[in-house]
Write a structure and sequence with these properties.
Largest interface: A-C, 37 and 32 residues
CATH class of the largest domain in chain B: Alpha Beta
Strand content of chain B: 15-25%
CATH superfamily of the largest domain in chain B: FAD/NAD(P)-binding domain
CATH class of chain A: Alpha Beta
Number of strands of chain B: 46
Radius of gyration of chain A: 19 Å
Strand order of the largest sheet of chain B: 3-2-1-7-18
Number of helices of chain B: 23
Number of helices of chain A: 12
Number of domains of chain B: 5
Helix content of chain B: 25-40%
Shape of chain B: globular
Oligomer: heterotrimer
Structural class of chain A: alpha/beta
Helix content of chain A: 40-55%
Radius of gyration of chain B: 29 Å
Structural class of chain B: alpha/beta
Distance between the termini of chain A: 27 Å
CATH architecture of chain A: Alpha-Beta Barrel
Chains: A alpha/beta (322), B alpha/beta (915), C alpha/beta (222)
């Protein structure tokens, strides 16, 4: 085991993993996080904490992740390259680990022009591939990016994102390979609505044997309405939403129920694809639906955390977050 | 020694063009005009520009008038008639003109036409009902701008045009198409709508006869933008109705199949072109022939300027209907014919052809520092089809060397070419031919082009040439709808007909289940308006030959296009011989099974008998002949890039701009002829080739080019080599001078519009005779109008000189510019700085700029100045742009008054705090 | 070339508050070529300043002078005879030009009339596009001659990110995804192998070390 991550343990057991996602509040309220986190208890293996998603200022992902640690959940701290240079990133990784965070998802980050501070200056000192490489170097070689020695290494389970629906399509799998070579242990994909395209991409992944070197969790978003789908199709960069799905939602008498049904069907289809090691559920401000989807997709109960993991939290980890 | 003077009789468009052309070639010319002024019929016409140029060509007349009256080599005699002529033994004539006698070497008759006298169709009520006027009356009313109601003294809320009054009408002895009426009615309809946007315009017509580069576009715009209604009917009578004085038009409604009445405020009779009443007397004077309608007849239809009388030539509508652009070109052709005959005579006398050093008139330009430069008298001819070979032959006749570059392995092109022409190319020492070759690069400018041609096996030849004639033809293909039938034996392309062997030639071999023992042929002429004229003659010939072989013939076409001389007669002949002409509105359908069946809706068959669908005609055809569509050659856009010339409508060479017809491109010294500039009949292509060869020879044929017009000049010290001028020059006359490391204007290639000077960000370019300093010296605190010399300035001068309304414009500071493209942002700002409260810029109509795009640049700059003014809190409406035609003095006055009104309302830009 | 764009009149007028004699100084090099500050733009701006004054009932004296290059001492020197008569110099040169004039004429109030934007080319007449960031460490050999540092919205070295779709950048449909261009070009060159290797983090010290960067060539120095 590279880390004490619950997610890593589940995957290492060959179990089909399930992760969730939690967006920190645009405030200093820890209660919001606690409330949202309730939905995930016993329902997922780990929870992603977004990092100022869509460039809107929110509570930091480190602090939010630390709160989850205190609640006994396994957070996946997202880290984008947009807001910090390599010094700040390494510093935050050390700090996060010290607070009990065992997973990191390395991202490029949405451009600041999407958010509420479009006049800010972006950093992008590193890109996501370089960030993965840096975390791996810190963990496995016990060195900073500068080459300086690192005494207590952050034993992070390293994740990366990949978008099978972005272009150039043929290149996406090359970039995935680059991330794997750089040190990614798991991959979470962009939300899948277009299963056909995802399958083509998975075929290319398998052709390169990448599914054996990295655990791939396919993204799924349960949607509430046809309008939400339309929005994603037209406004969210790098999304592929088939028109027939939108029509299906439009026709539905109970769109929320139809959204859940679609999510469950999608999960079932994705599960069939060789090389898919789990599902990453992104309820997008609809955390309450996560247990419902998990239940109906037959993904419950989740494997119990191993005793060793518990013990570690008790002895070393700042389990109360005090 | 005989006089070298050439006398041109008639100072209309063709006569003026002939005189100008001859003078430019170094001849001394006397221009005789019976009226008291030059200009001819067209001098009374109105510019029919709306917000854009409608290609009426009337502005060309104004240019011609100014040109012939200001050129020392042309003696103009108005109020004079030609009273007698006597052939001289050594050639030439002794003429009696207004009591004087004068010798000349040649006479060009350009006596024009008379409009058909509409009282010859009394049932149409001309001269009886005040609501009925002729197109000429409407021309006069449209002149000078102003309200039509006032000028005509009646409302114009509904207007009908009645076509073919005195054309295509055997009852009044006019068995020919006048060729110009459809287009002028269309333009007038647009102009009427522009003046009275609520007016409803209806056109009663038989067939639409297009002319010009893109007639279909004009018709589409008239229908789509102006809502002009086209009704295929020939009104039988016009009668007055009620007290409102409206006129009732009786016509047969093609949809209802019944006679109907419609009331109009105004009925405009589109009168046709009739021969001049004195034509017969002149013909007798010189022993010329006239055709059955009374127009002068050429000795040979292929060379329409040459008569059977030696030393006597014809130009323009005295030889048959022509529009303005054609008459201008006809003048060039007549001048060419004169010079060729004189050259032949000199050759007999072993004297050299006396072309003087080439120059470039034909466009009013400012005078500049005279300079004579050595140029190459070789002309590169791209394309070795008939047009290319004709150009080469003519160039050789005019003393130039021609180099033909042909992509294919042999000369001849689509039409194959007469063996005599091919032999001439072979034998003529002045004609070189590069086959299987193409132009790879073209450097340099007019007078000194450097062409790199790639031949077979990568062989590269460099050719230095003074001019280039592009004669690369077009691609002919069956229309999309019938393309899949191309492989059938019983479907054949119209232009391939001769080559394939006429299907009705071996008549007896057919099964002959039809009457007469022959088969049944369907000839489908489904072409666009711009190509119809080029192919309809072929279709009629095919129909007649099939009829002669005893076949049954159906001709399916949206229009019967018969503007070409003699085609109306062929049409009537074919109908007389039993050919069925179906003018369809919806494309015919072809059922191609074992046999062919063509189904077409015939609007003239109201409720057809025996057919399932009323009006449907099902024809079981033995042969289907389909006219091909013309497309630009596949390499056209690449060649356009190599040559740096513009493409126009449908991707053919040449802009759709009247100032460039027939053969000019945006670059001086590069000419486009024949099919490469749009579908052309063979005779049109040859005509183009001759005119282009003549213009090229006149330009560079003597090896010297005399530049005496104002051109732009670059100050190399100030040039930052930003390339702006090179990119924005509409004529591609500017290159990088590697040695000086600065842009350099080729004086020979520059047209003198001054656009570059106004675009240059370093102020490194000035236009001779119109420098910034010279312009700024004219700026005063008065309301200012920058006026294009080719359009608005003429209107302004007329307006300022005429009557009480001229007084209104008296306070206006009119600053002339050669082209509105010369007006710079700084000029406009300086006028405001000087205290002008409002400034206007007036130029030609869009697509009608004499320099191609100067007016568009000026319009953009006025927009820029408006937004700059806004940034300093000054009202943007103080700066204005207007399109004004040369005859639109009333429109000019209106614009000036509008501008001065703005000045009065807003007051001077001074002392007021904004906001 | 360096591409600049004139500041708004409002901004310029605010800078010039209280100045009654202004010298508008143009530059004959980059800003002439990009039509931001050559002799013509000097004339236009000077006219606008006079018109603005006229509108406000003020008097202002506006001089015009364009030198070959505002970023050379010798050329800037040519302003010496006239500069003393003005309250302010409004430089239409790039940032280097403004600073050169300011440094050369210690007592002068030198103001920028343009915003210096980037190193670029005219994509077409009247439209300029950024091509180079001057990062000091060129990698174009590995990216098919297309610079991701200047042309990718995120300056990614291992792009494209997940926002690239249909050849466009996630930031705007008006922005071409530089990495799509790089991919297409390397594909055409048969060098997609260049994209398999990870680009190491960039050495930004060549771009932003402390203070202005210098290039020195001793053999050329006097």
């Amino acid at each position: 085991m590279k880390s004490r991550s619950n997610l890593e343990w589940v995957l290492s057991q060959g179990r089909f993993a399930l992760t969730g996602e939690l967006g920190p509040p645009q405030s200093a309220s820890a209660d919001v996080i606690r409330k949202k986190a309730e939905h995930y208890k016993g329902c997922v293996d780990a929870v992603n904490i977004t990092d100022n998603q869509t460039a809107i200022v929110r509570m930091s992902s480190i602090a939010s992740a630390a709160i989850l640690v205190g609640l006994g959940l396994d957070p996946i701290m997202q880290m984008t390259c947009r807001d910090r240079n390599r010094i700040a990133m390494q510093s935050d990784i050390l700090g996060a680990y010290a607070l009990g965070v065992n997973n990191i998802l390395c991202l490029t980050g949405d451009h600041q022009s999407f958010g509420n501070h479009p006049t800010s200056k972006n950093v992008y000192d590193l890109d996501s591939v370089q960030l993965i490489h840096m975390v791996r170097t810190m963990r496995d070689e016990k060195r900073f990016l500068s080459g300086d020695e690192l005494k207590a290494e952050p034993r992070m389970f390293i994740g990366a994102a990949e978008n099978p629906f972005a272009d150039p399509f043929e290149y996406r799998v090359v970039r995935l390979a680059k991330k794997v070579a750089a040190g990614a242990d798991f991959i979470q994909t962009q939300a899948v609505f277009d299963v056909a395209r995802f399958s083509r991409w998975m075929g290319m992944v398998r052709d390169r044997g990448l599914h054996e070197r990295v655990r791939i969790l396919a993204g799924v978003i349960p949607v509430k309405s046809a309008r939400a789908l339309e929005y994603m199709k037209n406004e969210v960069p790098g999304m592929s939403v088939p028109d027939e799905l939108i029509r299906r939602m439009e026709k539905a008498d109970d769109p929320k129920e139809e959204g859940v049904r679609i999510a469950v069907e999608t999960i079932e289809q994705l599960r069939e694809a060789p090389g898919v090691a789990g599902i990453h559920l992104m309820p997008m401000m609809w955390e309450a639906i996560a247990p419902v989807v998990a239940e109906r997709a037959g993904l419950l109960p989740r494997p119990a955390p191993p005793a060793a993991q518990e013990a570690w939290h008790a002895s070393e980890g700042p389990s109360t977050g005090a | 020694m005989q006089s070298s003077r050439v006398v041109v009789v008639g100072a209309g468009v063709a006569g003026m063009s002939t005189a100008r052309s001859l003078a430019a070639a170094g001849a001394r010319v006397t221009l005789i005009e019976a009226r008291e002024r030059v200009g001819g019929m067209a001098a009374d016409y109105a510019c029919k520009g709306t917000d854009r140029c409608n290609k009426c060509n009337v502005c060309l007349v104004h240019d011609l008038v100014r040109d012939v009256t200001s050129r020392p080599a042309i003696e103009v005699m108005t109020g004079c008639r030609l009273d007698g002529a006597q052939a001289l033994p050594a050639g030439g004539y002794r003429l009696r003109v207004g009591g004087r006698e004068a010798d000349c070497s040649a006479v060009v008759l350009a006596t024009g036409f008379e409009p058909f006298d509409a009282s010859g169709r009394p049932e149409l009520g001309y001269g009886v009902h005040p609501a009925v006027i002729t197109a000429l009356d409407l021309e006069r009313a449209l002149r000078d701008g102003g309200a039509l109601e006032e000028k005509l003294g009646r409302p114009v809320a509904s207007v009908a045009f009645v076509q073919c009054v005195g054309s295509r009408d055997l009852r009044c002895g006019r068995g020919y198409c006048s060729r110009v009426c459809c287009m002028y009615s269309l333009r007038m309809a647009r102009a009427v709508r522009h003046r009275n946007p609520s007016a409803e315009v209806t056109v009663f017509y038989m067939d639409f006869q297009g002319a010009g580069k893109d007639p279909g576009d004009l018709r589409r715009k008239a229908e789509a933008e102006d809502g002009v209604r086209f009704i295929r009917a020939r009104p039988s009578e016009v009668a007055p109705v009620g007290d409102d004085g409206r006129a009732m038009v009786w016509f047969e409604d093609p949809d209802a199949g019944a006679c109907r009445l419609a009331a109009f405020d105004l009925v405009v009779l589109a009168v046709g072109i009739a021969p001049d009443r004195d034509a017969r007397a002149l013909a007798d004077m010189f022993g010329l022939g006239v055709d059955e309608f009374g127009f002068f007849a050429p000795a040979d239809r292929a060379d329409a300027a040459v008569t059977r009388a030696p030393g006597v030539f014809i130009a323009g509508a005295c030889g048959g209907p022509r529009d303005i652009a054609e008459s201008v070109a006809d003048g060039e052709r007549a001048a060419l014919a004169v010079l060729r005959e004189q050259a032949a005579r000199r050759a007999r006398e072993r004297a050299a052809l006396s072309l003087s050093a080439g120059t470039w008139p034909g466009r009013r330009v400012l005078p500049g520092k005279p300079e004579t430069m050595e140029v190459s008298s070789t002309v590169l001819v791209l394309g070795g089809g008939v047009a290319g070979m004709e150009a080469a032959r003519m160039l050789s006749d005019l003393g130039c060397r021609a180099v033909i570059v042909e992509e294919g392995p042999y000369l001849g092109g689509q039409a194959g070419g007469a063996s005599s022409l091919l032999a001439r190319m072979d034998e003529d020492a002045s004609v070189d031919v590069l086959v299987s070759s193409r132009l790879a690069r073209l450097g340099g400018q007019v007078g000194s082009f450097e062409a790199t041609c790639e031949g077979p096996g990568g062989l590269v030849s460099e050719v230095s040439a003074g001019a280039v004639i592009v004669a690369t033809g077009c691609r002919r293909e069956l229309p999309e709808a019938t393309r899949e039938l191309a492989s059938r034996d019983d479907v054949v392309g119209l232009s391939a007909l001769e080559e394939m062997g006429l299907p009705w030639a071996g008549g007896e071999e057919n099964d002959g289940d039809c009457a007469g023992g022959g088969g049944r042929a369907v000839i489908w002429v489904g072409v666009r308006p711009d190509t119809a004229r080029a192919v309809f003659h072929q279709a009629l010939c095919a129909a007649l030959s099939a009829l002669a072989a005893g076949w049954e013939v159906y001709v399916l076409a949206p229009e019967v296009a018969v503007p070409e001389p003699g085609d109306e007669r062929l049409y009537l002949e074919a109908r007389g011989a039993g050919a069925v002409f179906v003018k369809y509105r919806e494309e015919p359908q072809v059922e191609a099974g074992a046999a062919l069946r063509v189904i077409v809706m015939d609007p003239s068959l109201g409720g057809g008998a025996g057919d399932d669908v009323p009006g449907a005609l099902a024809i079981d055809a033995d042969v289907l002949v389909v006219s091909e569509e013309a497309y630009p050659q596949s390499g056209t856009s690449h060649l356009a890039t190599v040559l740096q010339v513009n493409a126009g409508p449908a991707g053919f060479f040449q802009d759709d701009n009247v100032n460039f017809l027939p053969v000019l491109t945006n670059r001086r010294g590069i000419f486009a002829v024949g099919g490469c500039r749009g579908a052309a009949a063979l005779s049109d292509a040859i005509f183009d080739a001759h005119v282009a060869a003549y213009l090229a020879a006149r330009l560079v044929g003597t090896g010297r080019l005399h530049v005496d017009w104002a051109t732009a000049r670059v100050d190399p010290k100030k040039c930052a080599l930003c390339l702006t001028c090179i990119r924005t020059c509409p004529h591609r006359a500017i290159d990088v001078d590697g040695e000086a490391r600065a842009a350099k204007v080729s004086r020979a290639a520059c047209w003198g519009c001054g656009t570059c000077a106004s675009e240059c960000p370093g102020k490194a370019i000035c236009l001779e005779s119109c420098t910034d300093d010279e312009i700024l010296a004219q700026v005063t605190p008065a309301v200012t109008a920058f006026c294009c010399d080719h359009s608005a300035l003429i209107a302004a001068r007329t307006a300022m000189a005429s009557g009480p309304s001229g007084v209104a414009a008296a306070g206006l500071n009119v600053i002339p510019v050669p082209c509105s493209g010369k007006v710079d942002v700084i000029h406009l700002l300086k006028a405001f700085e000087q205290g002008a409260a409002a400034v206007m810029v007036a130029g030609c109509f869009d697509e009608g700029c004499h320099f191609l795009s100067g007016n568009r640049r000026a319009h953009l700059r006025v927009g820029e100045v408006a937004s700059l003014l806004r940034t300093v809190g000054i009202e943007p409406e103080r700066v204005r742009f207007y399109h004004i035609g040369p005859d639109m003095s009333a429109a000019f006055l209106k614009a000036a008054e509008e501008t001065m009104q703005v000045a009065r309302e807003l007051g001077a830009v001074t002392g007021r705090r904004a906001g | 070339m360096i591409v600049a764009e004139r500041k708004s009149l409002d901004e310029i007028l605010a800078m010039l508050q209280g100045c009654s004699r202004v010298l508008v100084a143009g530059c004959g090099t980059c800003v002439t070529v990009c039509m931001a500050g050559g002799e013509k733009e000097v004339g236009v701006l000077a006219s606008l300043l006079r018109l603005a004054a006229r509108r406000d009932g003020r008097t202002v004296e506006v001089g015009e002078a364009t030198v070959e290059r505002q970023c050379e001492w010798e050329f800037v020197d040519r302003l010496a005879p006239v500069i003393g008569g003005y309250d302010a110099v409004l430089s239409m040169g790039c940032g280097a030009g403004v600073q050169t004039i300011a440094q050369r004429f210690g007592g002068a109030r030198v103001l920028p009339a343009v915003n210096t934007k980037f190193i670029g080319i005219p994509e077409k007449q009247g439209m300029w596009v950024e091509m180079c960031l001057g990062c000091g460490d060129c990698i174009l050999d590995r990216t098919g001659g297309i610079c991701p540092v200047a042309r990718c919205s995120k300056s990614l070295l291992n792009g494209p990110c997940g926002g690239s779709q249909g050849g466009k950048c996630e930031v705007s449909q008006d922005i071409t995804c530089a990495w799509q261009l790089i991919y297409d070009r390397l594909a055409a060159l048969g060098r997609l192998d260049l994209l398999e290797k990870e680009f190491a983090p960039k050495d930004w010290s060549k771009n932003r070390d402390g203070g202005p960067r210098r290039v020195t060539r001793e053999a050329i120095m006097l």
